[in-house]
Design goal:
mainly beta; Methylamine Dehydrogenase, Chain H; 5-stranded antiparallel beta sheet; 4-stranded antiparallel beta sheet; 2 helices
Length: 438
């Protein structure tokens, strides 16, 4: 046996790096059952405001917009109805409720996390609500591409629900349509390795948030009226970044999430686990998409995989494609995904057979939107591709330049498209909310 001397300098460096990155920190999850919480899950009518695009991935949580006539061609000098500056940075996508457009943002100096309201017709600023002052995670615990305002707002027409990582916790805040804070509630603690990404999902009277992290991951549901925790369940100690979604698959409502080595289904009313199906990856960013009977997910670390499951979690087909940051979309009988590196893939939903592949230019973080069979997806250079899948082939309609970058996913409402883009670079970069229409 050979005994090697300990390099104390190296050991000290490794320990320091572990501490700086939050490694080893644990926050045991205090689980709360739906029975013990006493929170009643109620059917919840929307408010008087029309919910055009009221949460992450739109009305059905799948990136599909109701049929309407959306523009297909624009640039920095034409097709833009209005543009308004957005302070700070954020990947929070626009949501459109009634006559207003809302986004979340974060400002480095002074440290603030905010929700902003803009007039849908003019782009005029309506109000700014500061949700947090101070408490932002350190820069070393947030990925260089990330921000302190990644989560897209969700609204039931009565309240806006904003979720931020602040003071090492995931905090949910309810704000009324006039910009007044109604309640604020900690969903649980959070150890940040690359930042916090998931957006909240609404189910009946509940606001559900995902928080997979190495310190102790969980799903938590809060009562939308009071903020009281209705249930909270542990999900292990793995860093993953996907938003949960609720879909009716196989005739029942299922809360679905990809990551932590599985695609997992829960009862959204109680948090009870229905099934879990192992995947080749532990970390994912994209949100699960579904049909009435099928479930699709993709991930990329440590292995690459796109998988199709039945409504009960049976693996039906899989391939070694990594659709990581952007979520996928279902268009008729086809599944379409655009990889981070800009390759668009199209598969048959039933079999996984490849219909076509097409290399697009640039890299991608935003998720595609579908309207009338047309796919809209912006890249990190500010180019939005509009295309269809016809006769077994990719058919590009247009490629539209707007700004210098685009990290946030688009929203659609009343024949208009809403994008959050960056203009300029470095210290001169300015984010803008842009309305595109005929």
């Amino acid at each position: 046996m050979v005994v090697r001397p300990i390099n104390s300098r190296l050991t000290g460096t490794l320990i320091l790096l572990a501490v700086l990155n939050g490694c080893g920190r644990e926050n045991p999850v205090h689980e709360i059952s739906a029975t013990d919480s006493g929170v009643e899950v109620r059917d919840h009518s929307s408010g008087s405001e029309e919910l055009y695009w009221a949460s992450w991935r739109g009305p059905h949580g799948n990136g599909v917009a109701p049929d309407q006539t959306l523009p297909t061609a624009w640039d920095n000098s034409s097709g833009v109805l209005w543009r308004s500056d957005v302070p700070g940075r954020g990947h929070s996508a626009p949501v459109v409720i009634g006559d207003s457009v809302y986004v979340a943002t974060a400002i480095a100096e002074p440290e603030t996390q905010q929700v902003l309201s803009y007039d849908r017709e003019t782009g005029d600023s309506q109000w700014t609500t500061t949700v947090h002052e101070g408490g932002l995670p350190s820069e070393r615990s947030v990925h260089r591409k990330s921000t302190h305002a990644n989560a897209t707002i969700a609204s039931d027409g009565h309240h806006l629900y904003a979720v931020f990582l602040n003071s090492d916790s995931i905090i949910v805040t309810a704000i009324n349509i006039d910009g007044k804070i109604v309640w604020r509630q900690e969903a649980g603690k959070f150890v940040s390795r690359f930042g916090y990404a998931p957006s909240p999902v609404l189910y009946k009277s509940l606001v559900i948030v995902a928080a997979d992290n190495s310190g102790g991951g969980y799903l938590a549901a809060l009562d939308g009226e009071t903020g009281k925790v209705a249930w909270r369940i542990s999900r292990g100690n793995i860093d993953s970044y996907s938003s949960a979604t609720v879909a009716n698959v196989g005739g029942r409502d299922q809360l679905l999430i990809s990551g932590c080595d599985n695609v997992t289904s829960y009862d959204p009313a109680t948090g009870e686990k229905l099934w879990a199906t192992p995947t080749a990856y532990e970390a994912s960013c994209g949100t699960v998409v579904t049909t009435d009977e099928l479930i699709f997910a993709s991930g990329g670390y440590p292995s690459k995989e796109t998988v199709c499951l039945s409504a009960t979690g049976e693996r039906l087909w899989a391939n070694k494609t990594k659709v990581y940051e952007p979520s996928m979309v279902v268009v008729a009988d086809q599944l379409i995904g655009v990889t981070d590196g800009g390759i668009a893939h199209c598969w048959r939903t039933a079999t996984g057979d490849v219909v076509w592949r097409k290399r697009l230019s640039g890299n991608f973080s935003a998720s595609p939107l579908v309207c009338n069979g047309r796919v809209y997806v912006p890249n990190l250079s500010g180019d939005t591709f509009v295309f269809t899948s016809e006769d077994g082939a990719y058919r590009q309609i247009s490629k539209n330049k707007l700004g210098d970058d685009c990290y946030a996913s688009p929203a659609a409402a009343d024949g208009k498209l809403f994008l959050r883009v960056g203009v300029g670079s470095g210290s001169t970069r300015q984010e803008q909310l842009v309305c595109i229409g005929e």
